[in-house]
Amino acid sequence: MDHTNNSCCCxxxxxxxxxxxxxAPITYRAESSIQTCSICHKEQLTNAVCENGHFICDACHSYxxxxxxxxxxxxxxxxxxxxxxxxxxxxxSVHMHGPEHHAIVPCVLLTAFRNNGEHMDxxxxxxxxxxxxxxxxxxxxxxxxxCGAAAGAGIFMSVMTGSSPLHKDAWPFPQKLVSIILSRLxxxxxxxxxxxxSRIAIEEAVHFYSQFCSVNIPLSSIxxxxxxxxxxxxxxDCPYYSE
Length: 243
Description:
This protein is mostly helical and about 240 residues long. Helices cover about 40% and strands about 10% of the residues. The protein has nine helices and four strands; from the N terminus they run ββββααααααααα. It has helices spanning about 60, 65-75, 80-90, 100-115, 120-135, 140-145, 150-160, 170-190, 195-210; strands spanning about 5, 15, 25-35, 45-50. The strands form two sheets. Strands 1-2 form a two-stranded antiparallel sheet. Strands 3-4 form a two-stranded antiparallel ribbon. The radius of gyration is 17 Å and the shape is globular.
């Protein structure tokens, strides 16, 4: 895979894995500090800096990602949720890791259910999901104890059920789904892989939501093609690993 075939908001080539600027591994510090984004030069509190001192804010990391993702999903007729996820993750604008996966998961779920006949106002739901999911920052799996892909699935569930902080009947369902996903993620173990956790979140969300609707969503058996691009790949411990 070409690791410099994307373009960031400054017009320069960027790396697929690791630091967008230099490709070096990202270090995650126990304590946060104020850093200046190497692209937009805005200051932000963060725990993540690359080994060469570069910091990329979430907005710049995901710059140029959402438009092609949304366009591809709107035009898609793919009914298999995992095959649809793989197609989206294969887009040149989607990196090995990054907060864009927090929005990709619920948007893929929404689209897969639409493509299989679930009734909804797709455009309104897609817009609301994107707005909410973009607020989930990178690194939440390690620093908040809530994986962003799981949170994304919870956002999908909340939109589909009309849940709100005061909705007695719908409120439990997103909580239950997120807890199921987090439990499975914890059983598989770390460190994080945005591809692995996105697939697991999709699988569990499809199984869970299908209990409440008549729509059946196909789920293919997936073999990961990103193993060599992930420095922290857990290999045989990952359910999608391929040598």
